Amino acid sequence: SYPVMPQMVSNEFPGRRAQEVIQRALQFQSPTRPSVKGRIVVESGYGAGIQDPDGNILIDLSAGVAVSNVGRNHPRVVAAIRDQAERLMHSAGLVNETTVALAERLSACMPEGLRGECFTWFGMSGSAATETAIKFAKAITGRSQIIAFEGAYHGVFHGSLALTTRENFREKFGPLMPGALHMPYAYCYRCFVDLKYPDCGVSCAKYLDYKLSTPNTGADDVAAVIVESMQADGGYIDPPVEFLQMLREICTRRGILLIIDEVQAGAGRTGKMWASEHFGVVPDMMTWAKGIGGDLPLSGVTVHKRYQDKLPLASQVITGAENALANVVALANLDILLDPQDNLIERAALFGAEIKAELAAIAADSAILDDVRGRGFFIGVELVADKATRKPLEPKRVGAILQRCEQLGVRIMACGRYGSTIRIMPPLTITKAHFREGLRRFAQAVSEVEHAQIPA
Ligand code: PMP
Questions:
Q1: Which of 27, 154, 220, 332 is the most buried (most CB within 10 A)?
Q2: Cis (ω within 30 of 0) for the bond into 312?
Q3: Which residue's CA is the nearest one to ligand 1's atom 1?
Q4: Residue ranges of the chain whose pLDDT lies below 50
Q5: Cα–Cα distance between 357 and 354 in angstroms, integer?
Q6: Does ligand 1 come within 6 angstroms of the Cβ of 228?
Q7: How many domains does the chain have?
Q8: CB of 423 closer than 6 angstroms to any ligand 1 atom
Q9: Is 185 among the domain residues?
């Protein structure tokens, strides 16, 4: 019931027309990357395929950036937009039933503990959702500090960027929001104190408790802990179950709010609607974006009703938010994700496990592909220069792999502290054949770089 991509081809890449578009972008659009290399121009999409203006079709193992969870141009989504556009596109400050319906629908599919007991603020980007969650936490608690984690990505505005630890994103923009602290995330592959799970007793979570109990450090002024249920840009990390559970317990015991960021891991990607459901942890507030609005800009903060009276919601509206087109797209996306016939979320859980096993077999035969981890279609693979020391693969060689992938007709992205983790996150609608073909091309690129057919 979802579109099938035509047979994939890959000619000269990037071709002449794509290069022209890129040159125009570099002249008139704030450049997000300085070079023509590695920039894909997308003209149209089919399921998990993207086509550039020269007719090259690539398998998109990134779903945008974990955005197009139901694939591109899903007919049910397209029909919903068409139907709504003919009636009303945006209510701008007025009540519209599509917003109400989406808030109700989200409430119904929240994890148990929030389900039916929450309300939602709507925005247009994950960054905006983080900003709002920070403000809500301050208003609710009357405190001012926010704790995030090493490797976190929560957005690019002054508050959300203060919680994001990517140095190249932050430099030149200081001072950012004061009162942002960072604790170690449970990145067990490269543990910050070289311990091994489970013998470590999840020391990283314990360190948070230790920090909060240190007198005269402002620990009693902490409003919230914000954490990605599964850390995304920081390295596609699947933390031990206890990690999030311990954070929940520490926050509850100390009267601190727990905000779970489901922007990238949510919307069915990990094999459950929300990744936090794997850990049995219920947040006080959840931020979401990407896969819920899919190809339209939509985000939100969903908050437990117990805090309703503490929030001055009327003054926190963004003019472009609560957009009727975005709302009906989100409703259609949720219908598609939760459709019992296709069962896309469960399918991602099962098929993702198969893919992980296949990747682990590829990694076993490779000197530079290591740890394969994740859940559902949220899979991380480490690229290393040396498996014994886990030294990250040099950026030049990672770049060569990504570029070769594009030439071979597969789009794949890296992430992580050293930019050396490959993240695999296709649309949940991808066919098994396309997923495997994408991986075959990726494995070929890795093998070519490993065996130096491509110079380092
Ligand atoms: N949180 C997480 C976990 C994210 O992955 C991102 C985007 N990479 C954001 C927040 C920010 O979302 P946006 O780019 O829509 O502002």
A1: 154
A2: no
A3: 154
A4: 1-2
A5: 5
A6: yes
A7: 2
A8: no
A9: yes
